[in-house]
Amino acid sequence: MLTYLLGLAQLLWLRSEPVHDERGGPTTEIVIITAALAAVALTVTAIIVSGVTGRAESIDFGP
Does the reported pTM lie above 0.85? Predict the structure, then answer.
C-alpha cells in the first residue's frame, strides 16, 4: 500500500502542469499534494503495523 501511494504521488508530481515555478522549484500545490499523500501513507502503515502487533500479542505460545 505504501508503495502504491508513493507511486501515485510521483505520478501526480510528473503529470501536473506546470511542475516548476519561474525559479525552477516545485509549485506549492505539488508540495502540498505530496505531503498529504505521504501523511496518508504513514497513517496506513501505522494502522497495518498496529493490527499485526495486536494479532501477534494475542497468540498463545504455551503455558
Answer: no
